[in-house]
Specification:
The chain has 2 domains: 138 residues, no CATH class; 228 residues, BirA Bifunctional Protein, domain 2, CATH 3.30.930. Helix content is 44%, strand content 17%. The strands form 2 sheets. A 7-stranded mixed beta sheet has the order 1-4-5-9-8-7-6, sandwiched between helices. A two-stranded antiparallel ribbon has the order 2-3. Helix 2 runs antiparallel to helix 3 and helix 6 crosses helix 12. The radius of gyration is 52 Å and the shape is rod-shaped. It binds 3,4-dihydroxyphenylalanine (DAH). The site of 3,4-dihydroxyphenylalanine has 11 residues, from strand 8 and strand 9. 3,4-dihydroxyphenylalanine binds next to strand 8 and strand 9.
Protein backbone atom coordinates (compact mmCIF):
# COMPACT_ATOMS: atom_id res chain seq x y z
CA UNK A 1 0.00 0.00 0.00
CA UNK A 2 1.40 3.35 -1.08
CA UNK A 3 1.17 6.19 1.32
CA UNK A 4 0.79 8.59 -1.62
CA UNK A 5 -2.61 7.20 -2.54
CA UNK A 6 -4.06 7.71 0.80
CA UNK A 7 -3.07 11.32 0.69
CA UNK A 8 -5.10 11.84 -2.50
CA UNK A 9 -8.34 13.88 -2.26
CA UNK A 10 -11.41 11.72 -1.64
CA UNK A 11 -13.25 12.63 -4.86
CA UNK A 12 -10.41 11.37 -6.89
CA UNK A 13 -10.20 8.03 -5.23
CA UNK A 14 -13.86 7.12 -5.62
CA UNK A 15 -14.66 3.44 -6.27
CA UNK A 16 -15.89 4.35 -9.78
CA UNK A 17 -12.24 4.63 -10.85
CA UNK A 18 -11.21 1.07 -11.48
CA UNK A 19 -8.48 1.75 -14.10
CA UNK A 20 -5.86 1.32 -11.49
CA UNK A 21 -6.07 -1.72 -9.34
CA UNK A 22 -3.45 -0.28 -7.11
CA UNK A 23 -5.45 2.83 -6.29
CA UNK A 24 -8.62 0.82 -5.71
CA UNK A 25 -6.89 -1.13 -3.00
CA UNK A 26 -5.72 2.09 -1.51
CA UNK A 27 -9.24 3.64 -1.54
CA UNK A 28 -10.84 0.51 -0.16
CA UNK A 29 -8.77 0.73 2.91
CA UNK A 30 -9.74 4.33 3.45
CA UNK A 31 -13.39 3.62 2.87
CA UNK A 32 -13.35 0.92 5.50
CA UNK A 33 -12.09 3.47 7.93
CA UNK A 34 -14.82 5.93 6.99
CA UNK A 35 -17.35 3.21 7.17
CA UNK A 36 -16.29 2.18 10.66
CA UNK A 37 -16.30 5.71 11.99
CA UNK A 38 -19.69 6.35 10.40
CA UNK A 39 -20.96 3.24 12.06
CA UNK A 40 -19.56 4.42 15.37
CA UNK A 41 -21.21 7.78 14.94
CA UNK A 42 -24.50 6.13 14.07
CA UNK A 43 -24.10 3.78 16.95
CA UNK A 44 -23.42 6.70 19.30
CA UNK A 45 -26.41 8.59 17.97
CA UNK A 46 -28.53 5.55 18.61
CA UNK A 47 -27.19 5.21 22.12
CA UNK A 48 -27.92 8.83 22.94
CA UNK A 49 -31.41 8.42 21.53
CA UNK A 50 -31.83 5.35 23.69
CA UNK A 51 -30.60 7.17 26.75
CA UNK A 52 -33.01 9.98 26.03
CA UNK A 53 -35.77 7.50 25.64
CA UNK A 54 -34.73 5.75 28.82
CA UNK A 55 -34.69 9.02 30.76
CA UNK A 56 -38.06 9.97 29.37
CA UNK A 57 -39.42 6.60 30.43
CA UNK A 58 -37.96 7.02 33.92
CA UNK A 59 -39.47 10.47 34.23
CA UNK A 60 -42.92 9.37 33.12
CA UNK A 61 -42.90 6.29 35.26
CA UNK A 62 -41.70 8.18 38.34
CA UNK A 63 -44.22 10.95 37.92
CA UNK A 64 -47.02 8.48 37.55
CA UNK A 65 -45.96 6.61 40.65
CA UNK A 66 -45.68 9.85 42.61
CA UNK A 67 -49.09 11.02 41.44
CA UNK A 68 -50.73 7.84 42.62
CA UNK A 69 -49.02 7.93 46.05
CA UNK A 70 -51.28 8.44 48.99
CA UNK A 71 -48.73 8.39 51.82
CA UNK A 72 -45.60 10.36 52.64
CA UNK A 73 -43.63 7.18 53.30
CA UNK A 74 -44.33 6.01 49.76
CA UNK A 75 -42.86 9.23 48.40
CA UNK A 76 -39.69 8.51 50.23
CA UNK A 77 -39.48 5.03 48.76
CA UNK A 78 -39.96 6.51 45.28
CA UNK A 79 -37.24 9.10 45.92
CA UNK A 80 -34.79 6.38 46.90
CA UNK A 81 -35.76 4.19 43.96
CA UNK A 82 -35.21 6.89 41.33
CA UNK A 83 -32.86 9.47 42.84
CA UNK A 84 -31.03 7.46 45.50
CA UNK A 85 -27.38 6.42 45.45
CA UNK A 86 -28.30 3.14 43.79
CA UNK A 87 -31.32 4.63 42.04
CA UNK A 88 -32.36 4.48 38.43
CA UNK A 89 -30.87 7.83 37.45
CA UNK A 90 -27.49 6.72 38.77
CA UNK A 91 -27.74 3.66 36.53
CA UNK A 92 -28.24 5.90 33.50
CA UNK A 93 -25.33 8.06 34.59
CA UNK A 94 -23.10 5.01 34.51
CA UNK A 95 -23.74 4.80 30.73
CA UNK A 96 -22.22 8.29 30.35
CA UNK A 97 -18.77 6.85 29.90
CA UNK A 98 -19.87 5.43 26.53
CA UNK A 99 -21.15 8.80 25.38
CA UNK A 100 -18.84 10.91 23.20
CA UNK A 101 -17.30 13.73 25.22
CA UNK A 102 -18.95 16.38 23.06
CA UNK A 103 -22.35 14.80 23.67
CA UNK A 104 -21.94 14.45 27.40
CA UNK A 105 -23.13 17.95 28.36
CA UNK A 106 -26.35 17.36 26.45
CA UNK A 107 -26.99 14.04 28.10
CA UNK A 108 -25.97 15.51 31.47
CA UNK A 109 -28.46 18.28 31.01
CA UNK A 110 -31.11 15.74 30.21
CA UNK A 111 -30.33 13.76 33.36
CA UNK A 112 -30.50 16.95 35.39
CA UNK A 113 -33.82 17.90 33.86
CA UNK A 114 -35.22 14.47 34.62
CA UNK A 115 -33.97 14.64 38.19
CA UNK A 116 -35.41 18.13 38.63
CA UNK A 117 -38.76 17.09 37.21
CA UNK A 118 -38.97 14.15 39.61
CA UNK A 119 -37.87 16.26 42.56
CA UNK A 120 -40.41 18.96 41.79
CA UNK A 121 -43.20 16.43 41.49
CA UNK A 122 -42.09 14.81 44.75
CA UNK A 123 -42.05 18.17 46.54
CA UNK A 124 -45.41 19.21 45.15
CA UNK A 125 -47.01 15.89 46.09
CA UNK A 126 -45.40 15.99 49.53
CA UNK A 127 -46.88 19.42 50.21
CA UNK A 128 -50.24 18.22 48.99
CA UNK A 129 -50.20 15.13 51.19
CA UNK A 130 -49.11 17.18 54.18
CA UNK A 131 -51.92 19.62 53.59
CA UNK A 132 -54.44 16.78 53.37
CA UNK A 133 -53.02 15.21 56.55
CA UNK A 134 -53.25 18.54 58.39
CA UNK A 135 -56.82 19.10 57.25
CA UNK A 136 -57.74 15.60 58.41
CA UNK A 137 -56.05 16.20 61.77
CA UNK A 138 -57.80 19.53 62.24
CA UNK A 139 -61.09 17.95 61.34
CA UNK A 140 -60.60 15.16 63.86
CA UNK A 141 -59.41 17.54 66.56
CA UNK A 142 -62.23 20.00 66.46
CA UNK A 143 -62.27 21.89 69.76
CA UNK A 144 -65.54 22.72 71.34
CA UNK A 145 -64.72 26.08 72.83
CA UNK A 146 -67.99 26.09 74.71
CA UNK A 147 -66.90 23.15 76.89
CA UNK A 148 -65.64 24.14 80.37
CA UNK A 149 -61.83 23.97 80.60
CA UNK A 150 -60.14 21.34 82.72
CA UNK A 151 -59.20 22.99 85.96
CA UNK A 152 -55.80 22.10 87.32
CA UNK A 153 -55.95 21.53 91.03
CA UNK A 154 -53.80 24.03 92.84
CA UNK A 155 -53.02 23.47 96.48
CA UNK A 156 -53.10 26.29 98.96
CA UNK A 157 -51.95 27.14 102.42
CA UNK A 158 -53.32 25.38 105.47
CA UNK A 159 -55.44 27.57 107.81
CA UNK A 160 -52.67 27.21 110.43
CA UNK A 161 -50.11 28.53 107.94
CA UNK A 162 -52.37 31.40 106.91
CA UNK A 163 -52.81 32.38 110.57
CA UNK A 164 -49.08 32.04 111.27
CA UNK A 165 -48.10 34.19 108.31
CA UNK A 166 -50.59 36.82 109.45
CA UNK A 167 -49.10 36.87 112.98
CA UNK A 168 -45.56 36.99 111.56
CA UNK A 169 -46.50 39.84 109.24
CA UNK A 170 -47.83 41.89 112.16
CA UNK A 171 -44.79 41.39 114.40
CA UNK A 172 -42.22 41.73 111.63
CA UNK A 173 -43.96 45.03 110.86
CA UNK A 174 -43.22 46.06 114.46
CA UNK A 175 -39.53 45.21 114.06
CA UNK A 176 -39.50 41.68 115.48
CA UNK A 177 -37.21 38.92 114.27
CA UNK A 178 -38.62 35.41 113.62
CA UNK A 179 -36.41 32.71 115.22
CA UNK A 180 -36.52 28.94 115.40
CA UNK A 181 -35.89 26.60 118.32
CA UNK A 182 -35.52 22.84 118.89
CA UNK A 183 -38.59 20.62 119.34
CA UNK A 184 -36.51 18.07 121.27
CA UNK A 185 -35.38 19.99 124.29
CA UNK A 186 -33.48 19.74 127.56
CA UNK A 187 -35.64 19.81 130.68
CA UNK A 188 -33.55 22.82 131.68
CA UNK A 189 -34.73 25.05 128.78
CA UNK A 190 -38.33 23.88 128.87
CA UNK A 191 -38.79 24.09 132.67
CA UNK A 192 -35.90 24.90 134.97
CA UNK A 193 -34.59 28.07 133.31
CA UNK A 194 -38.19 29.28 133.15
CA UNK A 195 -38.55 29.13 136.92
CA UNK A 196 -40.15 25.70 136.94
CA UNK A 197 -37.80 23.56 139.04
CA UNK A 198 -38.31 19.83 139.61
CA UNK A 199 -41.40 19.13 141.73
CA UNK A 200 -43.03 22.41 140.66
CA UNK A 201 -46.79 21.77 140.14
CA UNK A 202 -46.63 23.49 136.70
CA UNK A 203 -44.69 20.43 135.51
CA UNK A 204 -47.75 18.29 136.17
CA UNK A 205 -49.94 20.53 134.02
CA UNK A 206 -47.50 20.21 131.18
CA UNK A 207 -46.73 16.52 131.19
CA UNK A 208 -44.92 15.49 128.05
CA UNK A 209 -43.02 12.76 126.24
CA UNK A 210 -39.64 12.11 127.84
CA UNK A 211 -36.76 10.76 125.79
CA UNK A 212 -34.52 10.54 128.86
CA UNK A 213 -34.90 12.07 132.35
CA UNK A 214 -33.38 15.28 131.05
CA UNK A 215 -34.50 15.32 127.42
CA UNK A 216 -38.11 15.75 126.33
CA UNK A 217 -40.41 17.01 123.60
CA UNK A 218 -40.93 20.67 124.47
CA UNK A 219 -44.30 21.60 125.96
CA UNK A 220 -44.03 25.31 125.15
CA UNK A 221 -42.14 27.61 122.81
CA UNK A 222 -41.13 29.64 125.91
CA UNK A 223 -37.98 27.50 125.87
CA UNK A 224 -36.73 29.57 122.90
CA UNK A 225 -36.70 32.65 125.19
CA UNK A 226 -33.89 31.04 127.18
CA UNK A 227 -31.86 30.16 124.07
CA UNK A 228 -32.17 33.74 122.82
CA UNK A 229 -31.24 35.30 126.16
CA UNK A 230 -28.22 32.98 126.54
CA UNK A 231 -26.83 34.27 123.27
CA UNK A 232 -26.14 37.52 125.14
CA UNK A 233 -27.07 39.76 122.21
CA UNK A 234 -29.23 42.57 123.54
CA UNK A 235 -31.72 44.08 123.00
CA UNK A 236 -34.02 41.20 121.93
CA UNK A 237 -37.21 41.57 119.97
CA UNK A 238 -38.27 38.18 118.64
CA UNK A 239 -41.14 35.84 117.97
CA UNK A 240 -40.66 32.09 117.72
CA UNK A 241 -43.37 29.94 116.18
CA UNK A 242 -43.20 26.16 116.42
CA UNK A 243 -44.63 22.78 117.32
CA UNK A 244 -45.12 21.79 120.97
CA UNK A 245 -46.16 18.50 122.59
CA UNK A 246 -48.19 17.44 125.62
CA UNK A 247 -49.57 14.10 126.73
CA UNK A 248 -53.15 15.25 126.16
CA UNK A 249 -56.10 13.22 124.89
CA UNK A 250 -57.47 14.30 121.53
CA UNK A 251 -60.74 16.24 121.72
CA UNK A 252 -62.29 19.37 120.17
CA UNK A 253 -59.84 21.66 121.99
CA UNK A 254 -56.84 19.40 122.74
CA UNK A 255 -54.19 17.59 120.76
CA UNK A 256 -50.91 15.90 121.80
CA UNK A 257 -49.17 18.11 119.26
CA UNK A 258 -50.06 21.72 118.47
CA UNK A 259 -48.35 25.06 117.79
CA UNK A 260 -47.46 28.14 119.76
CA UNK A 261 -45.92 31.48 118.92
CA UNK A 262 -43.64 32.86 121.59
CA UNK A 263 -42.81 36.54 121.89
CA UNK A 264 -39.96 38.14 123.83
CA UNK A 265 -38.71 41.70 124.17
CA UNK A 266 -35.69 42.56 126.36
CA UNK A 267 -34.39 46.09 126.52
CA UNK A 268 -33.66 48.88 128.97
CA UNK A 269 -36.74 50.66 130.34
CA UNK A 270 -39.31 48.14 129.02
CA UNK A 271 -42.56 48.43 130.98
CA UNK A 272 -45.94 46.74 131.23
CA UNK A 273 -47.32 49.68 129.20
CA UNK A 274 -45.14 48.54 126.26
CA UNK A 275 -46.57 45.04 126.61
CA UNK A 276 -50.15 46.35 126.68
CA UNK A 277 -49.62 48.66 123.70
CA UNK A 278 -47.94 45.93 121.65
CA UNK A 279 -50.62 43.31 122.27
CA UNK A 280 -53.48 45.80 121.75
CA UNK A 281 -52.00 46.70 118.36
CA UNK A 282 -51.55 43.00 117.53
CA UNK A 283 -55.21 42.27 118.39
CA UNK A 284 -56.48 45.19 116.31
CA UNK A 285 -54.49 44.10 113.26
CA UNK A 286 -55.55 40.48 113.63
CA UNK A 287 -59.24 40.84 114.53
CA UNK A 288 -60.21 44.34 113.34
CA UNK A 289 -59.70 48.00 114.27
CA UNK A 290 -62.52 48.14 116.83
CA UNK A 291 -61.11 45.21 118.87
CA UNK A 292 -60.50 45.96 122.54
CA UNK A 293 -58.17 44.05 124.86
CA UNK A 294 -58.56 43.13 128.52
CA UNK A 295 -55.67 42.04 130.75
CA UNK A 296 -56.76 39.60 133.49
CA UNK A 297 -54.26 38.91 136.27
CA UNK A 298 -52.93 35.37 136.02
CA UNK A 299 -49.93 33.30 137.09
CA UNK A 300 -47.06 32.02 134.98
CA UNK A 301 -43.88 30.93 136.78
CA UNK A 302 -41.57 32.82 134.36
CA UNK A 303 -43.35 36.20 134.33
CA UNK A 304 -44.19 38.63 137.11
CA UNK A 305 -46.70 40.19 136.92
CA UNK A 306 -48.52 37.86 134.54
CA UNK A 307 -51.78 38.20 132.69
CA UNK A 308 -54.15 36.51 130.33
CA UNK A 309 -55.41 38.64 127.47
CA UNK A 310 -58.98 38.63 126.20
CA UNK A 311 -60.20 40.40 123.08
CA UNK A 312 -63.73 41.64 122.38
CA UNK A 313 -65.60 39.01 120.38
CA UNK A 314 -65.12 39.85 116.70
CA UNK A 315 -68.44 38.15 115.88
CA UNK A 316 -70.77 40.08 118.20
CA UNK A 317 -68.39 42.97 118.99
CA UNK A 318 -68.78 42.43 122.71
CA UNK A 319 -72.55 41.96 122.94
CA UNK A 320 -72.34 38.24 123.68
CA UNK A 321 -72.95 35.35 121.27
CA UNK A 322 -72.35 31.59 120.83
CA UNK A 323 -68.78 32.26 119.74
CA UNK A 324 -67.82 33.99 123.00
CA UNK A 325 -70.23 31.88 125.06
CA UNK A 326 -72.25 34.99 125.85
CA UNK A 327 -69.43 36.86 127.60
CA UNK A 328 -68.46 39.22 124.76
CA UNK A 329 -64.77 38.34 125.37
CA UNK A 330 -62.45 35.70 123.95
CA UNK A 331 -59.19 34.63 125.58
CA UNK A 332 -56.27 34.66 123.14
CA UNK A 333 -52.92 34.51 124.98
CA UNK A 334 -50.80 34.55 128.15
CA UNK A 335 -48.18 37.19 128.88
CA UNK A 336 -46.23 39.09 131.53
CA UNK A 337 -43.03 40.90 132.51
CA UNK A 338 -40.07 38.50 132.41
CA UNK A 339 -39.31 37.33 135.95
CA UNK A 340 -36.01 38.86 137.29
CA UNK A 341 -34.85 35.38 138.29
CA UNK A 342 -35.38 34.14 134.71
CA UNK A 343 -33.29 37.05 133.39
CA UNK A 344 -30.57 36.30 135.94
CA UNK A 345 -30.45 32.58 135.16
CA UNK A 346 -29.78 33.43 131.51
CA UNK A 347 -27.05 35.93 132.39
CA UNK A 348 -29.00 39.19 132.07
CA UNK A 349 -28.80 41.81 134.83
CA UNK A 350 -32.42 42.50 135.91
CA UNK A 351 -31.40 45.89 137.28
CA UNK A 352 -30.24 47.02 133.88
CA UNK A 353 -32.65 45.16 131.59
CA UNK A 354 -36.36 44.45 131.73
CA UNK A 355 -38.50 42.43 129.36
CA UNK A 356 -41.95 41.23 128.48
CA UNK A 357 -43.06 37.96 126.98
CA UNK A 358 -46.19 36.42 125.55
CA UNK A 359 -47.34 33.08 124.20
CA UNK A 360 -50.12 32.57 121.65
CA UNK A 361 -51.73 29.28 120.64
CA UNK A 362 -51.60 29.21 116.83
CA UNK A 363 -54.54 26.78 116.45
CA UNK A 364 -56.59 29.01 118.72
CA UNK A 365 -56.00 31.95 116.40
CA UNK A 366 -56.87 29.86 113.32
CA UNK A 367 -60.04 28.46 114.96
CA UNK A 368 -61.17 31.91 116.00
CA UNK A 369 -60.33 33.61 112.73
CA UNK A 370 -62.18 31.03 110.64
CA UNK A 371 -64.88 30.20 113.22
CA UNK A 372 -63.95 26.52 113.28
CA UNK A 373 -65.40 24.74 116.30
CA UNK A 374 -63.26 21.60 116.35
CA UNK A 375 -59.46 21.58 116.44
CA UNK A 376 -59.34 18.07 114.98
CA UNK A 377 -60.48 19.42 111.61
CA UNK A 378 -57.11 21.17 111.31
CA UNK A 379 -55.24 17.86 111.39
CA UNK A 380 -57.48 15.47 109.48
CA UNK A 381 -56.42 16.71 106.04
CA UNK A 382 -59.93 16.45 104.65
CA UNK A 383 -59.79 18.24 101.31
CA UNK A 384 -63.48 19.22 101.54
CA UNK A 385 -62.66 21.11 104.72
CA UNK A 386 -59.29 22.53 103.72
CA UNK A 387 -60.32 23.93 100.36
CA UNK A 388 -62.66 26.39 102.07
CA UNK A 389 -59.82 28.66 103.15
N1 LIG B 1 -45.95 29.05 127.58
C1 LIG B 1 -47.23 29.38 128.12
C2 LIG B 1 -48.17 28.19 127.97
O1 LIG B 1 -47.85 27.31 127.24
C3 LIG B 1 -47.79 30.58 127.44
C4 LIG B 1 -47.10 31.84 127.89
C5 LIG B 1 -47.59 32.56 128.94
C6 LIG B 1 -45.95 32.24 127.26
C7 LIG B 1 -46.95 33.72 129.38
C8 LIG B 1 -45.30 33.39 127.70
C9 LIG B 1 -45.82 34.12 128.79
O2 LIG B 1 -44.19 33.85 127.16
O3 LIG B 1 -45.17 35.24 129.17
O4 LIG B 1 -49.20 28.18 128.60
Amino acid sequence: MSVNHIREPLLEVGWYRDNSSQSVYADWDFLIMINISTKIIIKRKEEIAMMKEELEKIREEAIEKISSSDALEKLNEIRVFYLGKKGKLKDVMKGMKDVAPEERPKVGELVNKTQKAIEEKLEETKKNLEKIALEKKLESEVIDVTLPAKKSKIGHRHPNTIALEEVERIFVGMGYEVVDGPEIEYDYYNFEALNIPDNHPAKDEQDTFYITDKILLRTQTSSVQVHEMEKGKLPIRMISPGRVFRSDEVDATHSPSFHQIEGLVIDKNVTFADLKGTLAQFARELFGEDTKVKFRPHHFPFTEPSAEVDVTCFKCHGKGCRMCKGSGWIEILGCGMVHPHVLEMSGIDPNEYKGFAFGVGLERIALLKYEIDDMRLLYENDIRFLKQF
